[in-house]
Amino acid sequence: MDSNYKEGVTTFDIVKILRHILGDEKFESPYQYLAADVDLSGSVTTLDIIQIRRLVLSVEIDFRQTPSWRFIPAGYQFANPDDPLKESFPEVRSFYGLSGKILDADFVGIKMGDVTGDALSGNPGPAVLIQSPQRVRGTGKKKRGTRCAKETEPRTNR
Ligand SMILES: [Ca+2]
Ligand SMILES: [Ca+2]
Q1: Spacing of C-alpha 59 from chain mean position
Q2: Residue 104 backbone zone (phi > 0: left; psi -120 to 50: alpha; other: beta)
Q3: If you measure from the C-alpha of residue 65 to the centroid of ligand 1, how many angstroms do you get, rounded to a whole number?
Q4: Torsion-angle region of residue 146: left (phi > 0), alpha (psi -120 to 50) or beta?
Q5: d(CA 67, CA 87)
Q6: What is the 3-state secondary structure (H, E, C) of 45-114?
Q7: Nearest bound ligand to CA 13?
Q8: What tens digit of pLDDT does each residue of 1-53 get?
């Protein structure tokens, strides 16, 4: 799942991020901020654009600081959706080698660099919701996975 960094990442994403930086057209979703911050600096800047452009131009085959996808719990509410990079949000890690089974939790997958959300064709947003078949509804808690990736390790940006 970490193989194709370029999937869904085009010059159109660069244009969208540039417009956001310039204030012409702000991001609408906190996931767009996450997708745009490919150097994990905690802010969306021209440095992110430089990395994305190098990827689009095939100068680089990946992003240096991040895997091609990031995952956060689906139910997570950003304290400030207009500035999500400033907070420590839970992040699901260790998704390398994912073989198609995701148990006990729902995640939002964010394709890094793809702020327009076309990494998965037909997906309307910049992020894809991955739902567990064993989702526990209404109890307010989820079974802790012993068979899947370690989850919700708080991460600190910056
Ligand atoms: Ca950044
Ligand atoms: Ca895109």
Answers
A1: 22
A2: left
A3: 10
A4: alpha
A5: 20
A6: CHHHHHHHHHHHCCCCCCCCCCCCEEEEECCCCCCCCCCHHHCCCEEECCCCCCCCCCCCCCEEEEECCC
A7: 2
A8: 455 899 999 999 999 999 999 999 999 999 999 999 999 999 999 999 999 99
Residue 46 CA: which ligand is closest?
Answer: 1
Q: What does pTM read for this prediction?
A: 0.72
Distance separating alpha carbons of residues 18 and 22, to the nearest angstrom: 6
- Cβ neighbourhood burial of 154 (10 Å; 0-12, 13-18, 19+): exposed
Distance in angstroms (rounded) separating the CA atoms of residues 60 and 101: 30
Structure tokens at 156: 């600190």
Q: How far is the CA of 76 from the centre of ligand 2 (A)?
A: 23
- Counting ligands in written order, the one closest to the CA of 7 is 2
Q: Which residue is listed with tokens 């260790």?
A: 94
- Looking at all shown ligands, the one closest to residue 47's CA atom is 1
Could you tell me the two tokens for 70? Answer: 């990031």
In degrees, rounded to 5, the angle at the alpha carbon of residue 149 between the alpha carbons of residues 130 and 72 is 45
